[in-house]
Amino acid sequence: MTTAMQRVMTAIGQREPDRVPVFLSVTMHGAKELGLSIRDYYSRAENVVEGQMRLLDKYRGDGLNAAYYAAIELEAFGGETIFFEDGPPNAAGPVILRDEDIDRLEPVRITDAPGLVRALETIRGLKERVGDTVPILGSAISPFSLPVMQMGFDRYIELIYEQPVRFAKLMAVNQAFCADWANAQLASGATAIGYADPMASTTNIPREIFLKTGYPVAKETIGRIKGATAFHLASGRGLGIVEDIVATGASAVGVSTFEDLADWKAALRGRLTLIGNLNGVEMRRWSAERAETEVKRAIAKAGRGGGFILTDNHGEIPWQVPDATLLAIRDAVDRWGRYPLDWVE
Amino acid sequence: MGENRLGQSANKLYEALVLLDRPRIEEIFIQAVGHASPLQVIEDMMIPALRRLGDEWSAGRIALSQIYMGSRICEDLVERVLPASAVERKSYPPMAIVLLHDYHTLGKRIVLSVMRASGFNILDFGHMETDELVGRVLSSDVKILLISVLMLSSALKVKDVRAALDAKGARVRIAVGGAPFLFDSKLWREVGADAMGYNAADAVAIVQDWRKDWS
Q1: Which tens digit of pLDDT belongs to each residue from A181-239?
Q2: Which domains does chain A have, with CATH numbers?
Q3: Which of B53, B75, B152, B158 to mutate to test the interface with A (most CBs of A within 10 A)?
Q4: Last residue of a domain, one of B53, B81, B109
Q5: Does residue B89 lie in a domain region?
Q6: Is the ipTM of this complex over 0.90?
Q7: How far is A333 from chain B (nearest CA, A)?
Q8: Angstroms from B109 CA to nearest CA on chain A
């Protein structure tokens, strides 16, 4: 029997496995499985290990999602996190309150950040459970995107346009942190790292500015990460920078539901694996029939020849999406994702 | 300065805004207010240029960073000729903007700049949760409420705001904006909003339309 690891690796090798691999990006949903609040769930590594294992069993996905929540990286820089009952934890506020704070910013050691240490324990715990049979997906926010939380989106945009020297200083600190954090996850047993870089998206910044800022940062940082990375645009558009993303050295790219998977597949030409792009927000209202239609459509556009992993477009499915919908998506993958995809015209 | 000439200037202003060419933006604006009233320049040049910026962003052809930086420049220029206290400012009916149950401020900041650059006086309620917001809307006699969110869980809270305002018999029009509404085009109706904006400039069009009911 093909393991999830074999299935995913075959797809990444641009060949057709037994069926299209599927990652259902269920993160905080583990709390529901354990009957815990989201805050309590993330307070202990054992909770997340158990939650992810139950979600793996329930939805029969092809990967374990070891990611906690984005703000956990800001905690490493002294930030605080606000927890909600029904949604992802948020950063409570920026840690860089004045632009001058950047001048004194020092790299953060992973071992000094309790949240990150807990996340690494989680990866080790998952690895003990599944060995090499199921990919374990770590995550790291790109150095170029982390400042949205570190200093606030508005002030960060101003920094990019108006203060190149401070921008470079901030990138240097964040690059060291990002590479250390990603490599610590790989050393703990993560199979690959989701390199979350929504700021790179043409939704957020024009390509000509990206090429002078986030692109060299991404290329250098991904080069320092000692394992496979998936460049994730977290719902943002990216077709306008597809060649740049390919050139970063990433192995895969996670794309927006606002872009056509067929366009992405054609643009990538087998150089990167395509990950996407079910609409997680709209998914909340999908019937089982609609879920099947969406799965079928995505597979028809991108499944042929391998090099495709079906998932949502953001890397985190909302808390409000019913279990029945996720199960309907998963069942539809069994129904329509078996290779060869003879039904695709 | 005629409407046509201001229309041509709107195209030039748009091009300068895309490039974030501040000297050129200022030059176009100063030239326009030398030949027409500030309000006419806002209506016939500034609003069309900002509208086009919003449409181009919705179409994926320009980026949020350009909208943010451009709208700030426009807000600053308009403040110079039409300070917040100016009687020409569009202040009636009372209107406000809020970030509801959410900590992602950029969307609200951009809408605020675009509204102010379009000659509106609008109260900024900052970040609020439902009860505090309803109390503030009632005490400020707000008639038009713009709600910005980024998270789905926050978007769903609009339903509570609507229900609480209805329970108080308050006649308040609610327009919503933010990522969850872009990803689910039926969500704004589900939460009881009266309109949704696909981009910041939509807020101006929505409010301009609604103001007719109070004139």
Answers
A1: 999 999 999 999 999 999 999 999 999 999 999 999 999 999 999 999 999 999 999 99
A2: 4-68+95-336 (3.20.20.210)
A3: B152
A4: B81
A5: no
A6: yes
A7: 23
A8: 8
